[in-house]
Write a structure and sequence with these properties.
The complex is a heterodimer of chains A (182) and B (100). With 182 residues, chain A is mostly helical. Chain A has ten helices and no strands. Chain A folds into two domains: 1-89, NADH-ubiquinone/plastoquinone oxidoreductase chain 6, subunit NuoJ (Four Helix Bundle (Hemerythrin (Met), subunit A), Up-down Bundle), CATH 1.20.120.1200; 132-182. Chain A has helices at 2-10, 12-29, 33-53, 57-81, 85-89, 97-114, 116-120, 132-141, 143-154, 156-177. Chain B has one domain (4-94): Orthogonal Bundle (Helix Hairpins). The longest helix of chain B is centred in the last third of the chain and has 31 residues, at 57-87. Classes of the chains: A mainly alpha (182), B mainly alpha (100). At the A-B interface, helix 2, helix 3, helix 4, helix 6 and helix 7 of A face helix 1, helix 2 and helix 3 of B.
């Protein structure tokens, strides 16, 4: 039992990654758009688990709040707002579906082929470890504090630009979605 | 900690699924969701390598990618709603307003 738990703990990332892949596959192949959104939700929750397995607690919680809490609800809202019965009659998938899937599969095979040594060689099996100099600092500060140092000290300008982008997107969304006559 | 090859492989596969979704679906909403999925696959790499290099830059930029993704969703959904008002459909095959 203990062995099993240790094994699960070691493969935390792999388990969540496979769950995320399952959710994503459900998302692109589901016939019902609501099921697609549910697959997306599962995928986003699993990606949050992946972030936790990297020791990035702040990013994991932000992922839960932003994606599972905000974006999925927005998507669900629009899916239910838009009537999709017409789309069903005309077919859910494009005509080029088999070619597109074959292309993506070929791309995946090419990726694994090119990076075979990188992916499965001896050097690739070493774990992603924290750099030794930063272990002490990381333990002292905690993840959220480290991220906030990065955001508000080192990368303040990109952060401010991002806030302007969000404002523009907000105004743009209101203008786009507004009815024609005021 | 997960090994590097696991991280690269999983994030590449997630990205591939996103690309496949964009290529095969007709529904504009699902195409938007696939774009989000691709951004998340990139985020996994950013955070994993932030851990690897010991700097906080990867996590900070992953947070910025997340903010950009939120802006993208807001605009994308507004466009979808506007299109549905205009064309009564959100199938990308029927959106050819700019065709000469």
């Amino acid at each position: 039992m203990e062995q099993l738990l240790i094994k699960i703990g070691q493969n935390f990332f792999l388990i969540f990654g496979v769950i995320a892949l399952g959710g994503a596959t459900t998302m692109i192949f589901a016939k019902n758009a609501v099921h697609s959104v549910m697959g997306f939700l599962l995928s986003m929750l699993a990606v949050a688990g992946c972030y936790l397995s990297f020791g990035a607690e702040f990013m994991g919680v932000a992922q839960l709040l932003v994606y599972a809490g905000g974006i999925v609800v927005l998507f669900l809202f629009v899916v239910m707002l838009v009537e999709l019965s017409k789309a069903k009659e005309k077919g859910l998938f494009q005509r080029q579906t088999p070619f597109a899937l074959a292309l993506v599969l070929a791309g995946a095979v090419a990726f694994v082929g090119v990076f075979w040594k990188t992916l499965f060689g001896a050097s690739a099996r070493e774990a992603l470890t924290l750099a030794p100099g930063l272990v002490a600092q990381g333990e002292k500060l905690g993840n959220a504090q480290m991220v906030s140092r990065g955001l508000f000290a080192e990368y303040l300008l990109p952060f401010e630009i991002l806030s302007v982008i969000l404002l523009v997107a907000l105004v743009g969304a209101v203008v786009l979605a507004k009815a024609e006559r005021v | 900690m997960p090994a590097m090859n696991q991280v690269l492989l999983i994030s590449f596969l997630l990205f591939s699924v996103g690309v496949a979704g964009v290529l095969i679906r007709r529904n504009a909403l699902i195409i938007l969701m696939c774009a989000e999925l691709m951004l998340n696959a990139a985020n996994i790499n950013l955070i994993a390598f932030a851990r690897h290099s010991g700097t906080v830059a990867g996590q900070a930029f992953a947070l910025m990618v997340m903010g950009l993704a939120a802006a993208e969703v807001a605009i994308g959904l507004a466009i979808v709603v506007a299109l549905y008002r205009k064309k009564n459909s959100i199938s990308v095959d029927e959106i050819n307003l700019l065709k000469g």
